[in-house]
Amino acid sequence: MIEVRELTKRYGTKTAVDSLTFAVRPGIVTGFLGPNGAGKSTTMRMIMGLDRPTSGTATINGRPYARLEAPLHEVGALLEARAVHTGRSALNHLRAMAATTGVPRSRVDEVVDIVGLHDVAGRRAGGFSLGMGQRLGIASALLGDPNTLILDEPVNGLDPEGILWIRKLMQGFAADGRTVFVSSHLMSEMALTAEHLIVIGRGKLIADAPVQAFIDQASQNSVRVRSPQAVSLYDLLTGPGVTITSLGRSVLEVSGIDAEVIGERAAAAGIVLHELSPLQPSLEEAFMALTRDAVEFPALEGVLS
Amino acid sequence: MTTLTATHGGELRVTQARVIKSEWIKFWSLRSTTVTLIASVLLFVGIGLLAAQISGDGSGTGARRNGSTNPIDISLAGVNFAQLVLGTLGVLLMSGEYGTGMIRSTLAAVPRRLPVLWAKIAVFTGVVFPLMLVAGLVAFLGGQAIIGDAGASLGDPGAWRAIVGSAAYVTGAGLLGLALGALLRSTPAAISTFFGVMFLLEGVVQLLLPSSWRDTVGPYLPSQAGSAMGAVAEQSGSLAPWAGLAVFLAYLVVLTGAAGYRLKREDA
To answer: Residue A99: which of B3, B21, B31 has the nearest Cβ?
Structure first.
């Protein structure tokens, strides 16, 4: 269980994280979403005790990270970028990490095997590809068999096989009743992995909801209707709270009325329908809709007008 | 609590001894450590022997420490070079962690932070001081053998103190580098500061201060106070060995304290 209360981080006049409050519960994978620069990494660093909050608190199992007696056994973390000395071999890196808390050598070998670095463990970490570096980071997160996993952009640089592997790892962890908190700027990845989402933009909380609720909340569902009598249908459906967009001579996109109602009205008026399909907005679209105002560096829309 | 913690109870706590073990593994698992240690020994012994050879020939003034003609001082002339290399090693021990991002892993494992600094100091001192003691002894014995009849022996007054003092000084110089590395976090910044303090400061004092000040301030510079520790006899314009040790230790304590404060308080 990770609890963040009124967490704030300011660098000079710039507020990177603005009064965030949320909880990450055990038993499910919780995704931490936001555009680049939204404050995800800063928040995770504060949870990990690496950065000092300007105000507010972050606790893991009820205690600040710095007060955990055996931190690697309670929290496994994969932090952004590389957090490994490039001149040291993967194996020695893990041995040094393990030594701080009395993890036996046999466990070091075990995690090396779990992440599939067996053949390269003796090589200098500086020569690792991004994907191998991620696997080493995950190995070090698993060392203490922790109860909580905090992963910052773990699929970065992984090949499809690696992505599938980490997804299963996270879901297996959650299924064991453990806590998994994973950041990403890729909505599509979160749709496949997370059950719950915490979305931030410009350091502020935008949404804290189950994935499905997030999609529903973010965007009104619309319905695509194809009919040879599109013009009559248009007149039939138009009304307050209803938006109809014409996408060609016989295709309409209607929002504000359910597909069922459209079908019933068309039947009553004897209008032929060739297609009646509810459009699910993708997670990507939902995210864009929610964070449109919160993007750090928006594309320069309308600059020419 | 995890299953491991539950079964092992408090046995998985992070302790100072465990952090020292971790730093020991880190120390020996970088190739640069071994290379630097070998270089410092070669310089300490080699320069001493060279100085002894030159002075034995009577062919020149040679690399005499503090202009001394004492055969003990001559054989230990290598400290000036060994301190450079050890200072760099000290800097890298800390700044290397910041440069590579390793510091995030280190502090995630030891969130109380200060035990990391103490452990690095313990490992560095535990390895470097005995090694430099041996190097100093070899330089002394080899140097005296080269100098021959005019040479000193281990039984001479001040001989042991000079050897131990020199080993302590170069180890201390390395710890100064370590503190600077932790304080400045950047390898180039810490190394140039170290070189500036140990080598340029003396010149700056000579050049810029009026002579009355120069004689007062000069002996208290870190490099001067430090080399006084290893001198056989108190030389004019320099501190007595014990005073030198005290002044040098004061620099170390202040810098290490500042380094510890920054490590503990600031974002990693």
So the answer is: B21
For residue B9, is pLDDT > 60? no
Would you state the pLDDT for residue B213?
Answer: 81
Question: How far does A294 lie from chain B, in Å, by closest CA?
Answer: 26
| Nearest CB neighbour to A100, from listed B31, B101, B110 | B110
- Which residue of A79, A95, A147 is in closest CB contact with B25? A95
Whether A85 is in a domain gets the answer: yes
Beta strands per DSSP E along B141-249: none
Do A152 and A242 have their domain in common? no
A149, A140 in Cβ contact below 8 A?
A: no
Q: Is residue A267 part of a domain?
A: yes
User: Out of A113-122, A131-140, A277-286, B217-226, which region has the weakest mean confidence (pLDDT)?
Assistant: A277-286
Task: Give the type of residue at A57.
Answer: T
Instruction: Tell me how far apart the alpha carbons of residues B117 and B103 are, in angstroms, rounded to a whole number.
Output: 12
Same domain assignment for residues A152 and A248: no
Same domain, A20 and A70: yes
Residue A233, domain member (yes or no): yes
Contact B38, B128 (CB under 8 A): no
**At residue A225, what is the residue type?**
V
Q: A225 and A153, same structural domain?
A: no
Q: Is A99 in Cβ contact with B22 (below 8 Å)?
A: yes
Q: Quote ipTM for the complex.
A: 0.89
Total number of domains constituting chain A: 2
Evaluate if residue A196 carries a pLDDT over 90: yes
Of all residues in chain B, the percent with pLDDT exceeding 70 is 90
Instruction: For residues A47 and A156, state if they share a domain.
Output: yes
Kindly report the number of other CB atoms within 10 A of residue A185's CB atom.
Answer: 17
Between chain A and chain B, how many beta carbons pairs sit less than 8 Å apart?
124
pTM of the model: 0.85
